[in-house]
Amino acid sequence: MPMLQLEDINVYYGAIHALKGITLSVEEGQIVSLIGANGAGKTTTLRTISGLLRSKTGGITFFDKPLQKKSAEYIVCSGISHCPEGRRIFANMTVSENLEMGAFTRKDKKEVAATLKTVYEHFPRLKERMFQMAGTLSGGEQQMLAMGRALMSKPKLLLLDEPSMGLAPLLVKEIFTIIKEIHEIGTTVLLVEQNARMALSISDYAYVLETGKISLQGEARALSESEDVKKAYLGG
Amino acid sequence: MYGRSIRYGVLHIPIEIEGIRRGAIMLGDTLFLQFIQQLINGISLGSIYALIALGYTMVYGIMKLINFAHGDVYMVGAYVGFFAATAVRLPFFPSILLAMVVTGVLGMAVERLAYKPLRHSPKIAILTTAIGVSLFLEYTTMLVLTPQPRTFPPLLPETIYTVGGLIVSFQQLVILVVSIILMILLTYVVNHTKMGKAMRAVSYDPDAAQLMGINVDKTISFTFFVGSSLAGAAGVLVGIYYNSIEPLMGIMPGMKAFIAAVLGGIGIIPGAMAGGLILGIVEALISGFISSTFRDAAAFAILIIILLIKPTGLLGKNEHEKV
């Protein structure tokens, strides 16, 4: 029984048919990645899961509970956290306020404080800058803040959208190491990446998205050896 | 809004026969006194502008809408205060509290019924609706309560203090104190409460706020409640100060407060406070030293100048940094 199941998801932007019958599943405890070119519908898929967009058909279930037509608030509360593309941190708030916003739906202050401690352990640089305005952080630090913020709701499933975007190679490595750490402490990850090589290297399973449809899927290792994927996404 | 500040606005130039020198000193003193006097008048007028401007700026911040009905919410606040004081015979504080609650709920209702259904429509649709709501409130009030101006009951003693040639009324002091308390409260709410932080998050990035599990609808409702209740308080304060209210009384102060919000930088809360005070002081100085006929012109001239020189307002930044 998969943790998250998407069944025949169709999403439209006005007249544009962005997702054409997506069916995919995420098993608990895995890292699953969603790769594909710009505009293939990766971000749209994540935004549909977290309730920002609606599917016209089909359904989404999380631990067997239906998520479609539920509010974004409900979805966060049920254990899904979405770290969006482009970080989308609150630049007009301090680092610690941003993290506090991540725990918005949680009531127990002691438990939130405990989560905050683990987030600062994953991202020691955020602790150093906790009183700094988030807008003044470097790109890599902002990415860390966005991920830390997403972890503050203590998600069972973390949706990560393009965590490596616009970062220097060394930082990309660091971010991926942290993703592995987050996974090791028991968070299931659904990762959207343009950097297919990096994504496949840490994933258990992967889906390839092409113009709103899933064109290929399989074990990440098998996919990274497939000729089609190599040609299209791994640069030969 | 008219009359009283003109009374203080007459320039008394003493005619001294005994000597030019002494006369000149006297003239300097009077001018200085006059300046301080207008400053006092301007600050109490300006704190009212600031209270109304805060509602404009908060609503703009959270949904990028100029809520043209806001001045009329202020008018409704004045009427609620009026009926609380006359029909129910409530004293000052309960009256102003009641006005704040009623206008707060009115603001929420306007948002729910008129603006929420249009949230995903083009901006112009919702802006036009705001003008419609404004006319609706004005003319419904006229229909129900007649266009006749009403005399606001003296909820506060009309004591006047004279300190070293300066005239300060008890009412001016109350206006100032109440406005300052409300602004401090608002600043606290926005910066330190969960709802306030949600407001800042939604106004910065509604999508990201939703991903935090923030309920955007509730947050917008709350913003309308707070903004409208501040306008309601301003309505009662103005009713007491000018002791006359009528259904169209919200138009001019509404526009002025809008100018104040733009002057300070629309969407920025301290900007609305500063903008309101500056506008009030400028208006008082203009009516005191030039002529009160130019007062409104000065306000609109400020709007034009700020739009030409710094369209983002005094405290405005050029753009949100979204890296």
Automatic annotation (TrEMBL), chain A:
InterPro entries: AAA+_ATPase, ABC_branched_ATPase_LivF/BraG, ABC_transporter-like_ATP-bd, ABC_transporter-like_CS, BCAA_Transport_ATP-bd_LivF, P-loop_NTPase
Entry keywords, A to Z: Amino-acid transport, ATP-binding, Nucleotide-binding, Transport
GO molecular function, one term: ATP binding
GO BP of this protein: L-amino acid transport
SMART domains: AAA
Top-level taxon in the UniProt lineage: Bacteria
Ranges for domain ABC transporter: 4-236
Protein species of origin: Megasphaera paucivorans
Similarity comment text for this entry: Belongs to the ABC transporter superfamily.
Name of this chain's protein: Branched-chain amino acid transport system ATP-binding protein
Pfam families, sorted: ABC_tran
TrEMBL record, chain B:
Any one GO cellular component localisation term in the record: plasma membrane
GO molecular function list: L-isoleucine transmembrane transporter activity; L-leucine transmembrane transporter activity; L-phenylalanine transmembrane transporter activity; L-valine transmembrane transporter activity
Membrane topology: Multi-pass membrane protein
Biological process according to GO: D-alanine transmembrane transport; L-alanine transport; L-isoleucine import across plasma membrane
Subcellular location: Cell membrane
Entry-linked Gene3D superfamilies: ABC transporter involved in vitamin B12 uptake, BtuC (1.10.3470.10)
Alphabetical keyword list: Amino-acid transport, Cell inner membrane, Cell membrane, Membrane, Transmembrane, Transmembrane helix, Transport
Transmembrane segments: 39-61, 124-146, 166-190, 220-242, 257-285, 297-316
Signal peptide annotation: none
InterPro entries: ABC_BtuC-like, ABC_transp_permease, BCAA_transport_permease
Family assignment from sequence similarity: Belongs to the binding-protein-dependent transport system permease family. LivHM subfamily.
Name of the protein described by the UniProt record: Branched-chain amino acid transport system permease protein
Source organism per UniProt: Megasphaera paucivorans
Native organism taxonomy: Bacteria, Bacillati, Bacillota, Negativicutes, Veillonellales
